[in-house]
Amino acid sequence: MFLAGKPFPEADPRVLEISYATLSTAGKTMSQTLLTEDANPLTITEVFSTLGKLAEIRGVGSKEKRLALLSSLLSRTAPLETEYLSRMLLGEMRIGVVEGVLLDAIAEASGASRQLVRRAHMLHGDIGDVARIAMTEGSAALEKVGLRLFVPVKPMLAEMADSIPQVLAEHNEGSAFEYKLDGARIQIHRRQGRVRIFSRRLTDVTDSIPEMVDYAKTRVRASEFLIEGEVVALGEGGKPVPFQDLMRRFRRVHEIEDMVEKIPLRLYLFDILQSGGKTLIDLPYTERWEILASLAPAESLAPRIVTRDPKIVEDFMQSALKEGHEGLMAKSLTSDYSPGARGKKWFKIKPADRLDVVIVAADWGSGRRVGWLSNYHLAVRDDETGEYLVVGKTFKGLTDVEFEMITKRLQELKTKESKWTVHVKPEIVVEVAHNEIQKSPRYKSGFALRFARIAKFRDDKTPEEADTIQRLRKLYEKQFENKGRMLKEIP
After folding, report:
1. In the prediction, which pLDDT does 36 show?
2. Cα 204 to Cα 150, 153, 183, 275, distances in angstroms
Protein backbone atom coordinates (compact mmCIF):
# COMPACT_ATOMS: atom_id res chain seq x y z
CA MET A 1 0.00 0.00 0.00
CA PHE A 2 2.77 2.44 1.01
CA LEU A 3 4.86 1.31 -1.98
CA ALA A 4 1.97 2.27 -4.25
CA GLY A 5 2.02 5.73 -2.67
CA LYS A 6 -1.27 5.39 -0.78
CA PRO A 7 -1.67 5.97 2.98
CA PHE A 8 -4.86 3.86 3.16
CA PRO A 9 -6.45 1.08 1.11
CA GLU A 10 -8.36 2.39 -1.89
CA ALA A 11 -11.72 1.34 -0.45
CA ASP A 12 -10.93 3.09 2.85
CA PRO A 13 -12.95 6.34 3.09
CA ARG A 14 -10.41 8.12 5.31
CA VAL A 15 -8.54 11.13 3.92
CA LEU A 16 -5.54 12.96 5.36
CA GLU A 17 -6.17 16.52 4.11
CA ILE A 18 -2.44 17.29 4.19
CA SER A 19 -1.32 19.96 1.74
CA TYR A 20 2.14 20.94 0.61
CA ALA A 21 1.90 24.04 2.82
CA THR A 22 1.02 21.98 5.90
CA LEU A 23 3.87 19.57 5.27
CA SER A 24 6.31 22.41 4.72
CA THR A 25 5.27 24.09 7.98
CA ALA A 26 5.58 20.80 9.86
CA GLY A 27 9.09 20.37 8.50
CA LYS A 28 10.11 23.80 9.73
CA THR A 29 8.60 23.47 13.20
CA MET A 30 9.42 19.84 13.99
CA SER A 31 11.82 18.88 16.75
CA GLN A 32 15.47 19.03 15.74
CA THR A 33 16.14 15.72 17.51
CA LEU A 34 18.11 13.48 15.14
CA LEU A 35 17.98 9.72 14.94
CA THR A 36 20.96 7.97 16.46
CA GLU A 37 22.02 4.36 16.50
CA ASP A 38 20.44 3.97 19.94
CA ALA A 39 17.12 5.53 18.96
CA ASN A 40 14.12 3.28 18.44
CA PRO A 41 13.60 3.05 14.67
CA LEU A 42 10.27 4.18 13.30
CA THR A 43 8.22 1.20 12.14
CA ILE A 44 5.69 0.89 9.33
CA THR A 45 3.03 -0.02 11.89
CA GLU A 46 3.69 3.19 13.82
CA VAL A 47 3.51 5.27 10.63
CA PHE A 48 0.18 3.69 9.66
CA SER A 49 -1.21 4.21 13.16
CA THR A 50 -0.19 7.88 13.11
CA LEU A 51 -1.76 8.42 9.69
CA GLY A 52 -4.98 6.94 11.07
CA LYS A 53 -4.90 9.43 13.94
CA LEU A 54 -4.28 12.29 11.47
CA ALA A 55 -7.32 11.28 9.44
CA GLU A 56 -9.53 11.29 12.54
CA ILE A 57 -8.72 14.86 13.59
CA ARG A 58 -11.79 17.10 13.29
CA GLY A 59 -13.29 20.29 14.68
CA VAL A 60 -11.90 23.35 16.42
CA GLY A 61 -8.11 23.45 16.55
CA SER A 62 -7.80 20.60 14.04
CA LYS A 63 -5.16 22.43 12.02
CA GLU A 64 -2.90 22.87 15.02
CA LYS A 65 -3.46 19.28 16.20
CA ARG A 66 -2.70 17.93 12.75
CA LEU A 67 0.45 20.03 12.51
CA ALA A 68 1.70 18.88 15.92
CA LEU A 69 1.13 15.20 15.15
CA LEU A 70 2.74 15.49 11.73
CA SER A 71 5.75 17.33 13.18
CA SER A 72 6.15 14.63 15.82
CA LEU A 73 6.15 11.94 13.13
CA LEU A 74 8.65 13.73 10.90
CA SER A 75 10.99 14.38 13.83
CA ARG A 76 11.59 10.63 14.07
CA THR A 77 12.48 10.15 10.40
CA ALA A 78 15.91 10.15 8.83
CA PRO A 79 16.36 12.50 5.81
CA LEU A 80 15.66 9.78 3.23
CA GLU A 81 12.64 8.56 5.19
CA THR A 82 11.35 12.14 5.37
CA GLU A 83 11.60 12.46 1.60
CA TYR A 84 9.61 9.35 0.81
CA LEU A 85 7.07 9.83 3.59
CA SER A 86 6.43 13.36 2.30
CA ARG A 87 6.03 12.08 -1.24
CA MET A 88 3.50 9.50 -0.12
CA LEU A 89 1.49 12.03 1.90
CA LEU A 90 1.28 14.28 -1.17
CA GLY A 91 0.58 11.43 -3.58
CA GLU A 92 3.86 12.07 -5.36
CA MET A 93 5.72 8.82 -4.72
CA ARG A 94 6.69 8.24 -8.39
CA ILE A 95 9.12 5.39 -7.80
CA GLY A 96 7.78 3.32 -10.67
CA VAL A 97 5.94 0.87 -8.40
CA VAL A 98 2.45 1.06 -9.84
CA GLU A 99 -0.32 -1.14 -8.47
CA GLY A 100 0.03 -3.74 -11.22
CA VAL A 101 3.70 -4.25 -10.41
CA LEU A 102 2.88 -4.84 -6.73
CA LEU A 103 0.19 -7.39 -7.61
CA ASP A 104 2.63 -9.24 -9.85
CA ALA A 105 5.18 -9.22 -7.03
CA ILE A 106 2.62 -10.69 -4.61
CA ALA A 107 1.86 -13.46 -7.11
CA GLU A 108 5.55 -14.20 -7.62
CA ALA A 109 6.33 -14.26 -3.90
CA SER A 110 3.31 -16.34 -2.87
CA GLY A 111 3.21 -18.76 -5.77
CA ALA A 112 -0.41 -17.85 -6.52
CA SER A 113 -1.43 -17.13 -10.09
CA ARG A 114 -1.35 -13.55 -11.28
CA GLN A 115 -5.00 -13.76 -12.34
CA LEU A 116 -6.09 -14.99 -8.90
CA VAL A 117 -4.17 -12.24 -7.06
CA ARG A 118 -5.56 -9.53 -9.31
CA ARG A 119 -9.12 -10.81 -8.95
CA ALA A 120 -8.81 -10.95 -5.16
CA HIS A 121 -7.59 -7.35 -5.11
CA MET A 122 -10.41 -6.16 -7.37
CA LEU A 123 -12.98 -7.66 -5.01
CA HIS A 124 -11.26 -6.92 -1.70
CA GLY A 125 -9.87 -3.41 -2.29
CA ASP A 126 -6.99 -3.66 0.22
CA ILE A 127 -3.75 -4.62 -1.47
CA GLY A 128 -1.97 -5.04 1.86
CA ASP A 129 -4.51 -7.54 3.14
CA VAL A 130 -4.46 -9.39 -0.19
CA ALA A 131 -0.68 -9.75 0.24
CA ARG A 132 -1.20 -11.09 3.77
CA ILE A 133 -3.77 -13.65 2.60
CA ALA A 134 -1.60 -14.75 -0.31
CA MET A 135 1.55 -15.14 1.80
CA THR A 136 0.01 -16.76 4.89
CA GLU A 137 -3.06 -18.64 3.64
CA GLY A 138 -2.34 -19.32 -0.02
CA SER A 139 -4.35 -19.69 -3.21
CA ALA A 140 -7.26 -21.52 -1.60
CA ALA A 141 -7.97 -18.53 0.63
CA LEU A 142 -7.60 -16.10 -2.28
CA GLU A 143 -10.24 -18.05 -4.21
CA LYS A 144 -12.71 -17.44 -1.37
CA VAL A 145 -12.29 -13.65 -1.49
CA GLY A 146 -15.56 -12.14 -2.69
CA LEU A 147 -17.58 -8.94 -2.69
CA ARG A 148 -18.32 -7.47 0.72
CA LEU A 149 -21.38 -5.33 1.19
CA PHE A 150 -20.62 -1.79 2.39
CA VAL A 151 -17.04 -2.04 1.05
CA PRO A 152 -17.02 -0.12 -2.27
CA VAL A 153 -16.01 -2.00 -5.41
CA LYS A 154 -13.90 -0.58 -8.20
CA PRO A 155 -16.22 -0.01 -11.18
CA MET A 156 -15.75 -1.91 -14.42
CA LEU A 157 -14.40 0.39 -17.14
CA ALA A 158 -14.89 0.64 -20.89
CA GLU A 159 -12.65 1.18 -23.90
CA MET A 160 -13.36 4.09 -26.22
CA ALA A 161 -14.76 2.85 -29.53
CA ASP A 162 -13.83 4.56 -32.77
CA SER A 163 -17.05 3.56 -34.53
CA ILE A 164 -20.21 1.48 -34.28
CA PRO A 165 -18.92 -1.10 -36.83
CA GLN A 166 -15.85 -1.62 -34.63
CA VAL A 167 -18.08 -2.60 -31.70
CA LEU A 168 -20.18 -4.96 -33.82
CA ALA A 169 -17.02 -6.63 -35.12
CA GLU A 170 -15.54 -7.05 -31.64
CA HIS A 171 -18.74 -8.39 -30.06
CA ASN A 172 -19.38 -11.41 -32.26
CA GLU A 173 -21.70 -12.82 -29.60
CA GLY A 174 -23.89 -9.71 -29.71
CA SER A 175 -24.09 -6.32 -27.99
CA ALA A 176 -26.50 -4.44 -25.79
CA PHE A 177 -26.43 -0.67 -26.31
CA GLU A 178 -27.33 1.57 -23.38
CA TYR A 179 -27.46 5.34 -23.08
CA LYS A 180 -24.15 6.76 -21.88
CA LEU A 181 -25.75 9.02 -19.31
CA ASP A 182 -24.38 12.45 -18.43
CA GLY A 183 -24.44 11.86 -14.69
CA ALA A 184 -22.53 10.39 -11.78
CA ARG A 185 -21.98 6.67 -11.41
CA ILE A 186 -22.96 5.16 -8.06
CA GLN A 187 -23.14 1.77 -6.39
CA ILE A 188 -25.88 1.10 -3.84
CA HIS A 189 -25.28 -1.42 -1.03
CA ARG A 190 -28.19 -2.66 1.08
CA ARG A 191 -28.64 -5.27 3.78
CA GLN A 192 -32.01 -5.14 5.55
CA GLY A 193 -32.51 -1.58 6.82
CA ARG A 194 -28.94 -0.39 6.21
CA VAL A 195 -28.06 1.40 2.95
CA ARG A 196 -24.77 2.98 1.89
CA ILE A 197 -24.06 4.59 -1.47
CA PHE A 198 -20.62 5.10 -2.99
CA SER A 199 -19.40 7.20 -5.90
CA ARG A 200 -17.24 6.11 -8.82
CA ARG A 201 -14.21 7.18 -6.75
CA LEU A 202 -15.38 4.93 -3.88
CA THR A 203 -16.40 7.92 -1.73
CA ASP A 204 -19.39 7.53 0.57
CA VAL A 205 -22.08 9.94 -0.72
CA THR A 206 -25.03 8.45 1.18
CA ASP A 207 -25.84 11.59 3.16
CA SER A 208 -25.79 13.82 0.06
CA ILE A 209 -28.46 11.87 -1.85
CA PRO A 210 -31.13 10.82 0.68
CA GLU A 211 -33.74 10.19 -2.02
CA MET A 212 -31.56 7.39 -3.40
CA VAL A 213 -31.48 5.81 0.06
CA ASP A 214 -35.27 5.93 0.13
CA TYR A 215 -35.37 4.42 -3.37
CA ALA A 216 -33.16 1.50 -2.29
CA LYS A 217 -35.42 0.76 0.67
CA THR A 218 -38.79 1.11 -1.05
CA ARG A 219 -38.46 0.48 -4.81
CA VAL A 220 -36.08 -2.48 -5.15
CA ARG A 221 -37.74 -5.84 -4.52
CA ALA A 222 -34.93 -7.30 -2.39
CA SER A 223 -33.55 -6.70 1.08
CA GLU A 224 -29.89 -7.44 0.29
CA PHE A 225 -28.09 -6.33 -2.87
CA LEU A 226 -25.32 -4.38 -4.55
CA ILE A 227 -26.61 -2.59 -7.65
CA GLU A 228 -24.96 -0.05 -9.91
CA GLY A 229 -26.38 2.88 -11.77
CA GLU A 230 -26.08 6.49 -12.82
CA VAL A 231 -27.62 9.47 -11.08
CA VAL A 232 -28.64 12.31 -13.38
CA ALA A 233 -29.60 15.82 -12.24
CA LEU A 234 -32.70 17.12 -14.00
CA GLY A 235 -33.42 20.64 -15.20
CA GLU A 236 -36.09 22.29 -17.31
CA GLY A 237 -38.03 19.86 -19.47
CA GLY A 238 -36.62 16.94 -17.52
CA LYS A 239 -33.31 17.10 -19.37
CA PRO A 240 -29.93 16.54 -17.67
CA VAL A 241 -28.23 19.63 -16.27
CA PRO A 242 -24.47 20.18 -16.62
CA PHE A 243 -22.24 17.77 -14.74
CA GLN A 244 -20.83 20.57 -12.56
CA ASP A 245 -24.33 21.28 -11.21
CA LEU A 246 -24.80 17.62 -10.37
CA MET A 247 -21.50 17.65 -8.46
CA ARG A 248 -22.94 20.34 -6.19
CA ARG A 249 -25.20 17.62 -4.80
CA PHE A 250 -22.37 15.16 -4.31
CA ARG A 251 -20.23 17.67 -2.43
CA ARG A 252 -23.06 18.99 -0.31
CA VAL A 253 -22.87 18.16 3.39
CA HIS A 254 -25.22 20.87 4.70
CA GLU A 255 -28.76 21.99 3.78
CA ILE A 256 -29.38 18.73 1.92
CA GLU A 257 -33.17 19.07 1.94
CA ASP A 258 -32.94 22.42 0.17
CA MET A 259 -30.68 20.92 -2.52
CA VAL A 260 -33.08 17.99 -3.02
CA GLU A 261 -35.67 20.50 -4.21
CA LYS A 262 -33.29 22.67 -6.21
CA ILE A 263 -31.48 19.83 -7.98
CA PRO A 264 -33.81 16.83 -8.35
CA LEU A 265 -32.18 13.54 -9.30
CA ARG A 266 -33.17 10.59 -11.46
CA LEU A 267 -31.61 7.15 -11.10
CA TYR A 268 -30.88 4.84 -14.02
CA LEU A 269 -29.77 1.32 -13.07
CA PHE A 270 -27.62 -0.81 -15.37
CA ASP A 271 -26.01 -3.66 -13.39
CA ILE A 272 -26.28 -5.84 -10.31
CA LEU A 273 -23.21 -7.37 -8.66
CA GLN A 274 -24.74 -9.14 -5.67
CA SER A 275 -28.19 -10.28 -4.61
CA GLY A 276 -29.41 -12.38 -1.71
CA GLY A 277 -25.88 -13.12 -0.55
CA LYS A 278 -24.77 -14.40 -3.97
CA THR A 279 -21.98 -12.71 -5.94
CA LEU A 280 -23.10 -12.30 -9.56
CA ILE A 281 -20.06 -10.80 -11.31
CA ASP A 282 -19.13 -14.06 -13.06
CA LEU A 283 -22.55 -14.36 -14.69
CA PRO A 284 -22.89 -13.08 -18.28
CA TYR A 285 -24.29 -9.60 -18.81
CA THR A 286 -27.64 -10.93 -20.08
CA GLU A 287 -28.27 -12.92 -16.88
CA ARG A 288 -27.27 -10.02 -14.64
CA TRP A 289 -29.63 -7.74 -16.58
CA GLU A 290 -32.52 -10.20 -16.20
CA ILE A 291 -31.96 -10.36 -12.43
CA LEU A 292 -31.78 -6.56 -12.21
CA ALA A 293 -34.95 -6.18 -14.29
CA SER A 294 -36.78 -8.61 -12.00
CA LEU A 295 -35.96 -6.52 -8.92
CA ALA A 296 -36.16 -2.89 -10.09
CA PRO A 297 -38.98 -0.89 -11.73
CA ALA A 298 -38.75 -0.80 -15.53
CA GLU A 299 -38.64 3.00 -15.56
CA SER A 300 -35.48 2.89 -13.43
CA LEU A 301 -33.50 0.85 -15.96
CA ALA A 302 -31.10 2.56 -18.37
CA PRO A 303 -32.58 2.94 -21.89
CA ARG A 304 -31.31 -0.08 -23.83
CA ILE A 305 -31.55 -2.00 -27.11
CA VAL A 306 -30.04 -5.26 -28.33
CA THR A 307 -29.27 -5.24 -32.06
CA ARG A 308 -26.62 -5.84 -34.72
CA ASP A 309 -28.04 -3.29 -37.15
CA PRO A 310 -25.65 -0.27 -37.29
CA LYS A 311 -28.44 2.01 -38.56
CA ILE A 312 -30.60 1.19 -35.53
CA VAL A 313 -27.62 1.80 -33.24
CA GLU A 314 -26.90 5.17 -34.90
CA ASP A 315 -30.52 6.25 -34.50
CA PHE A 316 -30.44 5.16 -30.85
CA MET A 317 -27.28 7.22 -30.27
CA GLN A 318 -28.88 10.28 -31.84
CA SER A 319 -31.81 9.82 -29.45
CA ALA A 320 -29.40 9.73 -26.52
CA LEU A 321 -27.66 12.91 -27.70
CA LYS A 322 -30.98 14.65 -28.33
CA GLU A 323 -32.03 13.85 -24.78
CA GLY A 324 -28.88 15.52 -23.43
CA HIS A 325 -26.70 12.48 -22.82
CA GLU A 326 -23.17 11.72 -24.01
CA GLY A 327 -23.61 8.81 -26.41
CA LEU A 328 -23.83 5.04 -25.92
CA MET A 329 -22.33 2.21 -23.92
CA ALA A 330 -21.92 -1.08 -25.82
CA LYS A 331 -21.73 -4.23 -23.70
CA SER A 332 -20.98 -7.74 -24.85
CA LEU A 333 -23.95 -10.00 -24.09
CA THR A 334 -21.61 -12.67 -22.70
CA SER A 335 -19.36 -10.37 -20.66
CA ASP A 336 -18.76 -10.89 -16.96
CA TYR A 337 -18.22 -7.94 -14.61
CA SER A 338 -14.53 -7.23 -14.05
CA PRO A 339 -14.12 -4.69 -11.20
CA GLY A 340 -11.50 -2.06 -11.93
CA ALA A 341 -10.64 -3.53 -15.33
CA ARG A 342 -10.81 -1.79 -18.70
CA GLY A 343 -11.28 -3.82 -21.85
CA LYS A 344 -13.28 -4.55 -24.96
CA LYS A 345 -16.12 -6.26 -23.11
CA TRP A 346 -17.56 -2.77 -22.73
CA PHE A 347 -17.15 0.15 -25.13
CA LYS A 348 -18.18 3.78 -24.89
CA ILE A 349 -19.22 5.56 -28.08
CA LYS A 350 -19.03 9.35 -28.19
CA PRO A 351 -19.36 11.58 -31.25
CA ALA A 352 -16.71 14.12 -30.24
CA ASP A 353 -12.92 13.99 -29.98
CA ARG A 354 -12.42 14.24 -26.25
CA LEU A 355 -9.82 13.12 -23.73
CA ASP A 356 -9.76 12.90 -19.95
CA VAL A 357 -6.55 14.60 -18.81
CA VAL A 358 -5.03 15.73 -15.51
CA ILE A 359 -4.02 19.28 -14.51
CA VAL A 360 -0.42 19.14 -13.26
CA ALA A 361 0.38 22.89 -13.18
CA ALA A 362 -1.16 26.27 -13.97
CA ASP A 363 0.11 29.71 -14.95
CA TRP A 364 -1.08 32.97 -13.41
CA GLY A 365 -3.30 34.87 -15.82
CA SER A 366 -2.83 38.30 -17.32
CA GLY A 367 -5.17 41.01 -18.55
CA ARG A 368 -8.76 40.16 -17.64
CA ARG A 369 -7.55 36.97 -15.95
CA VAL A 370 -5.12 38.60 -13.52
CA GLY A 371 -5.34 37.00 -10.10
CA TRP A 372 -6.51 33.64 -11.44
CA LEU A 373 -4.63 30.47 -12.24
CA SER A 374 -6.03 30.26 -15.72
CA ASN A 375 -3.63 28.56 -18.13
CA TYR A 376 -3.67 24.88 -17.30
CA HIS A 377 -0.94 22.35 -18.05
CA LEU A 378 -2.74 19.21 -19.25
CA ALA A 379 -1.22 15.75 -18.90
CA VAL A 380 -1.94 12.13 -19.73
CA ARG A 381 -0.67 9.20 -17.71
CA ASP A 382 2.05 6.77 -18.76
CA ASP A 383 0.47 3.42 -17.94
CA GLU A 384 3.88 1.79 -17.60
CA THR A 385 5.60 4.23 -15.24
CA GLY A 386 2.73 6.17 -13.65
CA GLU A 387 4.29 9.47 -14.78
CA TYR A 388 2.05 12.31 -15.98
CA LEU A 389 3.17 13.73 -19.33
CA VAL A 390 2.09 17.20 -20.47
CA VAL A 391 0.28 17.34 -23.83
CA GLY A 392 -0.56 21.03 -23.94
CA LYS A 393 -2.03 24.03 -22.16
CA THR A 394 -5.38 25.79 -22.31
CA PHE A 395 -7.27 28.65 -20.70
CA LYS A 396 -10.42 28.10 -22.77
CA GLY A 397 -13.77 26.72 -21.75
CA LEU A 398 -14.30 28.12 -18.25
CA THR A 399 -16.52 30.87 -16.87
CA ASP A 400 -15.27 33.53 -14.45
CA VAL A 401 -16.89 31.64 -11.59
CA GLU A 402 -15.06 28.46 -12.61
CA PHE A 403 -11.74 30.34 -12.93
CA GLU A 404 -12.13 31.52 -9.35
CA MET A 405 -13.15 28.09 -8.09
CA ILE A 406 -10.32 26.22 -9.82
CA THR A 407 -7.76 28.77 -8.60
CA LYS A 408 -8.67 27.97 -5.00
CA ARG A 409 -8.59 24.22 -5.60
CA LEU A 410 -5.22 24.34 -7.32
CA GLN A 411 -3.63 26.41 -4.56
CA GLU A 412 -4.71 23.74 -2.06
CA LEU A 413 -2.89 21.14 -4.18
CA LYS A 414 0.31 23.19 -4.64
CA THR A 415 3.61 21.29 -4.47
CA LYS A 416 5.93 24.09 -5.61
CA GLU A 417 5.71 27.51 -7.20
CA SER A 418 7.80 29.75 -9.44
CA LYS A 419 7.14 33.37 -10.41
CA TRP A 420 4.52 32.51 -13.03
CA THR A 421 3.61 28.86 -12.49
CA VAL A 422 2.09 26.82 -9.69
CA HIS A 423 2.85 23.09 -9.84
CA VAL A 424 0.18 20.92 -8.24
CA LYS A 425 -0.53 17.39 -7.11
CA PRO A 426 -2.06 15.57 -10.13
CA GLU A 427 -5.58 15.21 -8.78
CA ILE A 428 -8.02 17.24 -10.88
CA VAL A 429 -9.30 15.43 -13.98
CA VAL A 430 -10.90 17.42 -16.81
CA GLU A 431 -12.54 16.36 -20.04
CA VAL A 432 -10.92 18.25 -22.90
CA ALA A 433 -12.31 18.73 -26.40
CA HIS A 434 -9.72 19.14 -29.14
CA ASN A 435 -9.45 19.35 -32.92
CA GLU A 436 -6.36 17.29 -33.53
CA ILE A 437 -3.41 15.51 -31.95
CA GLN A 438 -0.10 16.86 -33.18
CA LYS A 439 3.49 15.81 -32.69
CA SER A 440 5.38 18.31 -30.53
CA PRO A 441 9.05 18.45 -29.55
CA ARG A 442 8.09 20.98 -26.86
CA TYR A 443 6.70 18.36 -24.49
CA LYS A 444 8.26 15.19 -23.12
CA SER A 445 5.15 13.31 -24.26
CA GLY A 446 5.98 14.18 -27.85
CA PHE A 447 2.41 15.34 -28.51
CA ALA A 448 0.21 18.41 -28.22
CA LEU A 449 -3.56 18.86 -28.41
CA ARG A 450 -4.58 21.46 -31.00
CA PHE A 451 -7.28 23.94 -29.91
CA ALA A 452 -7.79 22.24 -26.54
CA ARG A 453 -10.80 23.42 -24.54
CA ILE A 454 -12.02 22.26 -21.14
CA ALA A 455 -15.49 20.77 -21.58
CA LYS A 456 -16.15 19.68 -17.99
CA PHE A 457 -14.55 18.75 -14.70
CA ARG A 458 -14.51 14.99 -14.07
CA ASP A 459 -14.56 14.90 -10.27
CA ASP A 460 -16.00 11.41 -10.54
CA LYS A 461 -12.71 10.13 -12.01
CA THR A 462 -9.39 9.50 -10.34
CA PRO A 463 -6.13 10.58 -12.01
CA GLU A 464 -5.41 6.89 -12.62
CA GLU A 465 -8.55 6.72 -14.77
CA ALA A 466 -7.43 9.55 -17.07
CA ASP A 467 -6.38 8.77 -20.62
CA THR A 468 -2.89 7.38 -21.17
CA ILE A 469 0.01 8.23 -23.45
CA GLN A 470 -0.41 4.73 -24.89
CA ARG A 471 -3.96 5.54 -26.04
CA LEU A 472 -2.90 8.97 -27.29
CA ARG A 473 -0.30 7.36 -29.56
CA LYS A 474 -2.94 5.07 -31.04
CA LEU A 475 -5.31 8.00 -31.61
CA TYR A 476 -2.52 9.94 -33.33
CA GLU A 477 -1.91 7.08 -35.76
CA LYS A 478 -5.62 6.65 -36.40
CA GLN A 479 -5.89 10.25 -37.64
CA PHE A 480 -4.04 9.19 -40.77
CA GLU A 481 -6.88 6.99 -41.93
CA ASN A 482 -8.39 10.19 -43.32
CA LYS A 483 -5.26 12.30 -43.70
CA GLY A 484 -2.09 12.05 -45.73
CA ARG A 485 1.31 11.82 -44.11
CA MET A 486 4.02 14.33 -44.89
CA LEU A 487 6.75 12.84 -47.03
CA LYS A 488 9.40 14.56 -44.90
CA GLU A 489 9.29 15.85 -41.37
CA ILE A 490 9.65 19.63 -41.26
CA PRO A 491 12.04 20.70 -38.48
Report:
1. 44
2. 10, 12, 17, 21
